Amino acid sequence: MKVLAIDTSNNPLGIALLDNEKVIGEYITNLKKNHSIRVMPAIEQLMRDCEIETSELDKIVVAKGPGSYTGVRIGVTIAKTMAWSLGIPLVGISSLALMAGVGRNFDGYVSPLFDARRGQIYTGLYYYEGMQLKTEINDCNILAVEWAESLKKLDKPILFVGNDLVLHKETIVNILGNQAIFASITENNPRPSELGLVGFNLSGEDIHTFVPNYIRLVEAEAKWLDSQKSDGKKL
User: Are residues 183 and 122 in the same domain?
Assistant: First the structure.
């Protein structure tokens, strides 16, 4: 089975091709550039290099969020369009879960994170049971301080991973001390091959009703809802 994995949910752009659980190609950049004009050429180039035709694809796996609202929408839209046009299954995976692969051999919990501004982060808590990824705490949007405080009660070390660690590392260390372990610089980019691996054996979702998981409202939408409530209007 040949699987195409697509991740545009944050600054890193990741594309991978898997063939029967073998990674045959992977493309990653970590640049602040427009994914909308780069992702299709990246897919085409990788497939050309791997000598795979779109007609040979059996499944598409996409990072469905959380992350950049625009980035998530781009990846999900392309994945839905390709899956529908090719008549193959579409699987959505948490953008945080795909980063937890670095903890496959770590004896403890894994907390991937993205910065959500104003001291907040997108994060969740994962662990491995054998080779199976399990969720301890579902993905959420929370203040970094509150997240670190909530993890203090755990009796295992916690591996933090993500390119935005530099923004929150001091807060985490101040609260968790030696309980906090940090991934190396080469482990912080989300690996699209991990995305493909996590979704490899999962059943497809309904393409037409599949939507991104933003976790929180877009800021403009949240402000609009607040204004409607303050005006006493029914929503």
Answer: yes
CA angle 51, 52, 53 (to 5 degrees): 125
pLDDT of residue 228: 54
Residue 232 has what pLDDT? 59
Q: What is the mean pLDDT of residues 121-138?
A: 95
pLDDT at 218: 45
Specify whether 71 is located in the same domain as 117. no
Which residues form the domain of 13? 2-94+191-215
Give the contacts of 43 (CB within 8 A, at least 6 positions apart): 4, 6, 15, 78
Mean pLDDT in residue range 210-222:
69
pTM over 0.70: yes
